[in-house]
Amino acid sequence: MRVTRAAAALLAAAALAGCSPSGTTGQGGPDELVVLGAASTRVLNEDIQRLSPDALTFVNAGSSDLVQQLRDGSPGDLLITADQRTMDAAVADGVADNPRVVATNSMVLVVPRGNPAGITRVEDVQREGVHLVTCDAQVPCGAVAGQLAEANGLALAPVSLEHNVADTLGKVVSGEADAGFVYRTDAAAAGDAVEVIEIPHAEEYPNSLVAAVTTGTQHRDEAGRLLETLSGEEMAQAWSRHGFTPAG
């Protein structure tokens, strides 16, 4: 029922906003906490709900989009961003406070099952005719992709810039793109729908998953308890199971 209720909230919001559910704001019930989670954390929703004594509504989208939703006055009790920079902006804007790093992630290159473009190394994405997709530089997955491009001396020419890593992965899985830069955890979640190519220096550019209670929450104690859960031992097992590295 909780999953159904969360999905219904997202679909209703999408209808009102005229955009896809992944980029919209959910509206929890009076006794539910609204968790605004970076798109890469969507694979953890069931684990977080299982470990929480409270009913939760999840809104998964690009980190910068979630922060903008809070700036615009949308409801939210706990914010999870996919990098420190975006959380710092949220704190500076007064929509979240006292953040903590809860896990880290790293990036890989993925190609569709069967690898139709014959990509065997990251340099191949520069070949003429290769349709590469990445996140926009304004969101964490795009910022990391840019750092890795520089570290590897790549001149990237993506055919599409996405607002979150889920959309980037979706373009590759559907065959709309020949390759995409995504987080290792997203590649794992996609299973055999994609093939993974390691990116040199990726471990040198990890991104931090950072969580904080929002300043506008009306459930501060419950949101604080959920924040503690994200850093707990049981949740550490869930982070690891999905390919993240839990914070020490």
Task: Offer a quick outline of the entry.
The chain has 248 residues and is an alpha/beta fold. It has helices at residues 2-17, 45-51, 63-71, 84-92, 140-151, 165-173, 184-190, 220-230, 233-241; strands at 32-38, 55-61, 78-81, 96-105, 107-112, 132-135, 160-162, 179-183, 194-197, 207-214, 245-246.
Q: What does this 3D model show about the protein?
A:
The protein has helices at 2-17, 45-51, 63-71, 84-92, 140-151, 165-173, 184-190, 220-230, 233-241; strands at 32-38, 55-61, 78-81, 96-105, 107-112, 132-135, 160-162, 179-183, 194-197, 207-214, 245-246. The strands form 2 sheets. A 6-stranded mixed sheet has the order 2-1-3-10-4-11. The protein has a 5-stranded mixed sheet with strand order 7-6-8-5-9. It is elongated, with a radius of gyration of 18 Å. With 248 residues, it is of the alpha/beta class.
Give the overall pLDDT as a whole number.
Answer: 89
Number of helices: 9
How many separate domains make up the residues? 2
Strand order of the largest sheet: 2-1-3-10-4-11
Radius of gyration: 18 Å
Low-confidence residue ranges: 1-27
